[in-house]
Amino acid sequence: MSFPETTSHFFEDLAVGMRETYLKTVLDSDVIGFAQISGDHNPIHLSEHFAAKSRFGGRIAHGLYTASLISAILGMRLPGPGAIYLSQTLKFRAPVRIGDVIAVSVEVADLIDKGARVLLACEARVDATIVLEGEATVMVPRRADLQPAILAAS
Fold first, then answer.
1. Are 71 and 81 in contact (CB under 8 A)?
2. Which segments constitute the MaoC-like domain (predicted)?
3. Whole-prediction pTM value?
4. 30 vs 34: CA distance, rounded Å
């Protein structure tokens, strides 16, 4: 699924508790594509024969594929275009399987005025199971940062 629209927030627009969720069905082509892009061709992700003998009993998506969906929210919705990723912590709690619908959420946990930094709580769920959690820190443009560019364009 893709977002219906892009939303961009300036630092001044953000408030603790703002939240955005992205739903994504994990497709076989997503897992294969992520393996091609990342170079991680671990058979736990790509070989049903190999994965069937694993503790998971079948193929699972790359953990960083799931984590990359956090980036989709940060870059496109909350805070949105202009946000710069500074750091991310991740705890992988459970496997994500092909066909699962992942609900990835980020929530503004703290606003740090110095440097226009935002701390976001991040979580991914499959049904009621938390599969990933962590925190992200991003730098967000202030309205004043873009005023000269806006004036120059008019």
1. no
2. 24-115
3. 0.86
4. 6
What band does 152 get if pLDDT is binned at 50, 70 and 90?
Answer: low
Q: How many CA atoms lie within 13 A of 95 on its CB side?
A: 14
The answer to whether 17 and 120 have CB atoms below 8 angstroms apart is no
Residue keyed to tokens 């496109």: 76
Q: How far is CA 102 from the centre of its chain?
A: 11
77: tokens are 């919705």
Q: Is 40 exposed, middle or buried (0-12, 13-18, 19+ CB in 10 A)?
A: middle
CB 3 within 8 A of CB 133: no
pLDDT digits (tens, 9 = 90+) for 91-113: 999 999 999 999 999 999 999 99
> Is 11-153 a CATH 3.10.129.10 domain?
yes
* Number of residues assigned to the chain: 154
Rounded to whole angstroms, the Cα distance separating 13 from 87 reads: 21
C-beta neighbour count of 69 within 10 angstroms: 22
**pLDDT for 3:** 58
**In this structure, are residues 80 and 8 in contact, taking their beta carbons and an 8 Å threshold?**
yes
The predicted model gives 130-145 an average pLDDT of: 95
